[in-house]
Batch of 3 targets.
Target 1
Amino acid sequence: MSLLLLQDAAANYGAFAAIGAGLAAIGGGIGVGKIGGAAMEAMARQPEMQGKLQGSAIVLIAFIEAVALFGVVVGLLGVLK
Amino acid sequence: MQSNTFKAFLAIIFLSFFTTGFADSKDPTEGEKEFNASELIFHHIGDAHSFHIASDLSVPLPVILWTENGLVAFSSSEFHHDVDGKTIVEKNGLKFVNLHEKIYQLNDGESTVSLDKDNHATNAIRPMDFSITKNIFSMFLSVALLLLIFILSARSYKKSGDKMPSGIGRIMEPIVVFIRDEVAIPNIGEKHYGKFMPFLLTLFFFIWINNVIGLIPFFPFSSNLSGNIAFTLTLAVITFLITLFSSKKYYWKHMLWMPGLPVPMKLFLAPIEIIGMFVKPIALMVRLFANITAGHVIVLSLISLIFIFKSVWAAPISVAFTLFISVIEVLVVAIQAYIFTMLSAMYFGQALEEEHEH
């Protein structure tokens, strides 16, 4: 039964690609959430550092996001194949 | 009081979507081609040989090809909007077809293009394509806009002398100063930053204006240039080359023979650092490409909801979400331009690092 389901999914690249993109989004979400939380906490402790913290938080988010976006791109390639 | 009436109105619209919206979606429209959302989306984010405006209205763009019979140029209107390879254009004794916005040249003696099961042509080759496509057109447009903006701001600086500039110079100054004070100086350092400012400013404004052009949904704009991987690849390669050419001894020493570590660890780290050197520009490339493409895909998917549900009641929801995402996208396109510039500056800073700065 499960084998049949798998065969069905394998015939349809899109399903696998969507699962992959979703998993990548989970990872990215956790990472961005942790950075956002920590940045907010730091800003609340030291409001005078807000500018610097915001800048570095955005750059760190860009690093995390890149990994999630790799997932999206690989997913897209899977669909377009 | 007024806001209560407004809320009630919103609630009615919202509820009516759930009642009639799904009821309507059941009756099939006959005779029409089945709506395919992914086809529409890929058509919109891809490059094209003509600028599509409305259903039958489009602006043809020149097709310029380098073939064995020399340079061939003709208007893309000669394909009559055909992208399935059925219309054959004969120029210089060669036959060309447009197959999914890729120009193919038919082999000698062939009169129709034949396809294998993956829709690739089997009896045609692709000549070198130098066409002014939608993306190239949009790149020229952005270059023209940037020239206009910066020549005007230079003129306004000249006119005002030592005083604060008036007009467009006053708008551009804070952005240029921001790139200098927040991006270049902290990352590259007071000593060397001047050399990199022209590149960083060009990078920032070029990416930004192209991202914004992608967000404007009508004719001279609306292309997806910064969501094209060739465009981001070029920018990332330029950053990579500048990093390499401005690198100092310390950069290579840190990469190949990390000081202050035991020898086995040095041997272990060197390959990782070398891979990292190439991964950085690849990440730059993919980040910009995927962010902008994802933005376009989200907006188009939300618009497609109307056609997927086949109901006018899906429109308020779809338009509201599209507006919401578009507002976020205005932020995202600026942040992406900033991040690309910021990371480029960081890589230059790393390449220029010197021993005593540790």
Target 2
Amino acid sequence: MVKSRILHFWILAFGGLLVFFPVYVALMGSTQDSINIGRGQMNLIPGNKAASNYLQAWYFGSTVVGTPPVYVMMCNSLLVALGIALGKIIMALLTSYAVTFFRFPLQNFFFWLIFVTLMLPLEGRIIPTYKVMADFRLLNTYAGLIIPHWVSATGTLLFRQVLRSFPKELLDAARVDGASPIRCLTAIVLPNIKPNVVALFIILFLAGWNQYLWPLLMVTSPSKYTLTIGIVKMAASGEALVDWGVVMAATCIAMVVPLLVVIGLQRWLLMGLGAMSSR
Amino acid sequence: MGKTYQPIFRNKFLPYLLILPQLALAIAFFLWPAAVALYQSVTRTDPFGLKTSFVGLAHFKSLFLDSRYLKSLQLSFIYAIIITVTSIGLGLLFAIAANDKKVPAGRFFRTILIWPYALAPSIAAVLWLFLFQPSIGLITKWLKMLGVNWNYTINSSQALALVSLVAVWQRLPYNFIFLLAALQGVPVEVIEAARLDGASARRIFWAVVFPLISPVTFFLCVVNMGYAFFDTFGIVDALTKGGPAGATEFLCYKVYRDGFVNLRLSISAAQSVILIILGIILTIAQFRFGEKRVHYE
């Protein structure tokens, strides 16, 4: 038993190292002189350029290519991820509320139409979607980065399942007291399913924060870059010219928000993941 | 208790109003574009855009006669299998170790192992790029000392290995989370009983525990295949752009290249339709295994 415990410890230590090592090297890289890194003299101990690398990344971005300062990309990422998650939650909630507590012609058909979007990955409708975005004049806009994501088959399915087991007596009582359906939703349903909403919100926020292909297609002006595409552009520009210290500082800044989510909201994150798989 | 399907509200128009926003967006940005892709995949428009004629499956036929597409198809499946098997295997290994409640620093390791889930595939790619960059990478330097000439920008198998490594690293936490939850759901009494019967730890795992967690494992296989086919775009774009010589040009990257860079619209549309079919298959499989999982537990 003790022997297997030691083995388990070493397995976990190996896993921890596997995960931590690239993050550690990035952290060290962000404190060193880009010129030294460019010469292949990367150290595994902190250098003395931390302040200048982080300040440079935060306020100016990479000197070499036309990428915006990290604070701009950070704001874009936050705005987009919050907008997407909030919009998806509202849409999913309204739809699942309608199909659970109302009866209307074609409701299953409409529900099915929303469900089908689950089977249509962006890669499978890439050019026509781009065309639609251009026709609506949504290219290069925040609205274009956010609104087309407000379709959530997963969220709708999840909320429908939650609402189906919602105690109907509560709603009946409120209705008899003269509350409108909308009031029932905001005053009775919403407060009672808050944990489900929070858990789903976190999953959707991370997905919005991490998406890549959509902003890559939609955005051409650097001022609207999100962190995911901005940092790749900083790191990929012309080989030797990459300002590695600054790029790694930007990468480390970009990892802070996901890190906070995992550490601070781990319980919700796990709950959300569990709910999504067993719908 | 009334029947489950008894409606609560009797409004006639309100439900349509509630469902309309999401339905309109689903039609505008999902269903309509998918229908257009389908239409474009079976028609040909002349260069001036004046005449469109129906060509049946001609685009699909030329697609499947194109050796580059066949190569991409084959690569995507190889890549998906590598990622699925490796990340589930490692996830299971770490989950078994973490399921030992008395292992030192268990909670700490668990948080660390979950963390990359929250990172973007493209950011994960930049982290590993810094290590494996051909001229400045730290691991590149170490490999050179060992006599390995590492340059993924010109070596096909190294490119595939690097892209797989990043995907497995980024995907590992997801598998770890689910497998750990599944292991924790295995009743202690069952394991105790097997132990009293004198079964070895290995035998207990394969004969008792593994069958109980296999529904979750099936589910993870499907989800990881989906990840490999559709969500690894950022990794490829950040590291190899499909190169060298198409060595990492997976289906999701090829459809983008052919559509946006090479501007071969009808060929790209045909590829889109194939990706949609793949999406349908994976979604159906996911729901079947998802149901099974609930049923078993």
Target 3
Amino acid sequence: MLHTINKSPFQNSALENCLRLARDGDVILLLEDGVYAAAVGTVKSSLIEQAVRRHAVYAIEADLKARGLDKLVKEVRIAGYGDFVDLVEKHPVHAWL
Amino acid sequence: MAEKGKKVMVTVRKAPHGSIYVQESIEVMFIFATYEMDLSVVFLDDGVLALHAGQDTKGLGIKGFMASLGALVDWEVTKVYVDRQSLKDRGITEDAIIAIGKDDDSGAPIRPKVLDGAEIATMMAEQHSIVSF
Amino acid sequence: MIISILVLEGPYNHEASDSAYLFTQAALAKGHTIRGVFFYDDGVYNATKLMDPPQDDRHISKRWSELGATGIDMVVCIAAAKRRGITNEVLAPNIRISGLGQLASMIHESDRIVTFGD
């Protein structure tokens, strides 16, 4: 399963909700405001810091750049939309809106 | 409609009335049930609030979806599930969730089946496609 | 891979429409087939030809129309459209209004469906 998260973790619990149900081997992709979850030094950084131990976590580069985010949790993989497409090819998607 | 075709799930995760997503997701469920697909519906996170007893939108002048929700089984949307933890977090007891139909013989209310997160996750992993609201 | 896209939010107000468009372009660039783009909830607002954004910003309904012109099925849900006043009179070119059954068909005929919303 590919789980997409597009809302900021500071005001939306979608990422936490997702992590409760995500199974080993599932992949997480952060896009839009969801990329804020990948930033280090926030009250929500621990969500992704823990998530990367069980899941491959990707963040859309264009969304990171749009928001000026460059200090990220180390294991988060930067993805282009082409990578997003490749992930969809491998996994059915659940969008945590 | 026979349960042939692809396994398709609709997830509902938003609270009702503050936005139209719950209502318009039910319209999707009705249509999907008439097509050749093995349809499941899961109410999760704030979506479980759509199953809260005693909803009455008259004072808001909003038509709402309560009648439609009560007729899901009549429309052959029978695989309807709700997340246990989400209910618990919101103080909704499992026997208080609204009925989505009535048993033809006994007249007893049919309620969505309450599942643990792990069961829902397993079910999600079996789907061909998931549409989320 | 055959993919369908579901867009649940209107243009400009949410990033969903942009993300959906970027994903669609990336999928086409990789040689995949887009079976269709289905607009539901406020997503139906993506289809109005009356959109008149500033010249130096993206024109969201025009670019969906351009995709439709390549033969991709761009469908606006009639029930959601009627609620929101999106009629054939205001529809951008190469986009059509139809029922939710088209979404069911898209799913049936696709390997994947990806939802973009709020």
